Description:
By secondary structure, the chain is α+β, with helices and mostly antiparallel strands.
Amino acid sequence: MKVSKEVRIGFIVIAGVLLAYWGINFLKGRDFFTSRTLVFAVYHRVDGLAPSNAVYVNGMKVGMVRKLTLLPDFSGRILVSLQINNDLKIPRNSEAEIYGTDLLGSKGVRIIFGDSKEDLQDGDTLIADIQKSLTEEVNAQVAPFKQKAESLLSSMDSVLLIVQAVFNETTKQNLKNSFQSISNSLSSIEHIASNLDTVLSPKGRLQNILANVESISLNLKNNNDKIEGILSNFHALSDTLVKSNFAGTVENARKTLEETAGIFAKVNKGEGSLGMLVNDDSLYSQLNSSARDLDLLLQDIQLNPKKYLSFSVISIGSGKKSKKTTGN
């Protein structure tokens, strides 16, 4: 049977199309000659996971991502279909974790085995998990420092506000005055230190004081006998006072003072001649008048002595005595 040229060309074209389809799927990881198990995982996000991304177990490729489908329940979750080789026994409670396969951001799914005794079956759903991305890891590490930096910036802002409030013109002037006071205090301290140096120097006042004290001590030592004699005399005097009934003498003196006080009290009351003299104004006036009259009398006697005095004249002659009396 002779096949026409057109039929042969048709077979070649169909074979080429099939071969191309198989090749494309092979490049995508789909092998039509290998049976696979289809399982699922539901994620809230897939972080760039795409169909034909590989599925790994401990770094070994065991399947591929077949497709991603948005669930129709308006939850925003994504259903990921995974094709896994049938010859691989996977525990039923294993996890399907999306992770980054390289630093360029490529994604893949790795199966983390669970501890179930049952094997994963076709159509089962794995526990979904997503590894933190590098950005998330960095953010997690940087977040505490960010918070501290923000707190520090807030504190610095508060400090700056306080500094601005403190360092106004009035405060600056007060600080200037304070520094001036400190400078004056330091000058005073320096002056005091200089005086102390002068006092404590070998030729200073303290040295002179110590020398004087030493001289006094030496004098006391040299006059020790005299001092002992003075103390002995004082002791003898005290013994004499004790033996001489000093207490009785003091008592007599006290009584005498009381009697004197009584006399003065009577004088103040006008009792007795002295009291009348001190307290009676009429007696004082009479005495004053008498003194004035006596003074006038003495003046008149001085002026007219013949008026008050008589003289006896004795004449001696020829053995006879004659007496002439002159007077009033």
